[in-house]
Amino acid sequence: MYVLTPDIVSLVKGPANVRIIGKASILGKDVSDSTVFIQQGRLLPFETDSSCKISITLEEKEDGDRSKIWMCSSFEAGTKIWKDIVNRIISSSSSSKNLQSIMVVGPTDSGKTTLSTYIINEAIRNALKPAIIDADIGQGDLAPPNAIGCGIAAKQILHLREVSTKYFAFIGSTNPTGFERLITRSVKTLFNKLKKEENENKNDVNLIIINTDGYITGNGLICKVSVANELRPHIIICLGEDSSSPSPLVHHLRSYLSSTNITVTYAMSASSNNIILKRQTERRRQRLNQLQRYIPDFGKVRGKSITLSLKKIKFVYRGLTYFKGLIVGRNNDDLILVSKRKTILISKENLVNMFVGLGLGDNVIGFGIISNIFAEYSVYKIAIQTNIEKLNKIYLSNTGISRDSWKPYVIDLKVDSYQLKEEPSR
Known about the structure:
Elements: E1 2-4, E2 8-13, E3 16-22, E4 25-26, E5 29-30, E6 35-38, E7 43-46, E8 52-58, E9 68-73, H1 83-95, E10 100-105, H2 112-125, E11 130-134, E12 147-152, E13 165-170, H3 180-199, E14 207-211, H4 219-231, E15 235-239, H5 248-256, E16 263-267, H6 280-294, E17 305-309, E18 314-317, E19 320-322, E20 324-328, E21 334-338, E22 343-347, H7 348-351, E23 355-360, E24 363-376, E25 379-385, E26 393-395, E27 399-401, E28 408-410, E29 416-417
Helix pairs in contact: 1-2, 3-4
């Protein structure tokens, strides 16, 4: 049994059960006199404004990933290190008649998702309606790897995954390098969809939070600047900063923003003592769990699927839509994609087992795995493991799912330019 006071934060890493006796909160959510289960690999801060007791039951998984406990000062961890800046955000959003937006940036494991969750909970506690765009295509919580998701928070949460995703954008990679422009365009598209709904009074969202990935050097920094210039958020919070000596991140953002009306501020990282740094195994587990959430019958070779004629499908690769797909090659082992701008060739070997986004019209409506491309009565068809029943677009990626181990892997997706002289015979 541990005793918490206002100047102490208890950090608990799961798997663990925590029983609270008295008044306490986690990331701004009231958990007084309750029992909280913390999943494997998750780390949550327990705090109190008065005094409480917590009883912690630790577990150990077969892979040796043990749960742990740290007792820290509230000046080093927990939400109190962000209280002033979050109070300013809530005050501004409550008093303004216009939609407010916040962008959270910082290096990997600096606490961006934790801060975003805290802002959501404080906004809801103050009768606001927040929305979140999770733009981390590798470790996001509102979409599977390769995609960006956004949603509207209806209640206080302990994890961003509790927010129901309203819209998706498909990037096609878990690594942002080389996809910076597509990420910028996709975040803007999702932002505008939320804003359009708000303007049409289909929702009463008054605060949008843009949570970003940890890629903040080189083109990653340029991407953050580009997103900020396109969306013009009211505040950009740079995590991992020392208020006495801000890093070049703040300086560069302030230097390259096109609007002087954007406030760039810095905040202490929740992981300044390196407690929250994730191991590579934890990252792989999180990525696999996200894929399992969005692929029906994950782990089954013959899961629910749909078969479609190539003639009725458009393909999207790196943001460009191809209106025609043709099978060519001596052994029918190449797929040619044709658009108004270019024609490319992709081998069938790279397509089978590929994780893909599935679209209808201009919306990404689900996800799946390409299981086969084959000929049936001279008509070429594509089979996809998915629970989506109606679609007209397939978004390609460089991520495959092994049918032996059901683990994701990177596809060396070699795309060759192709000169289409005449349509191959079917």
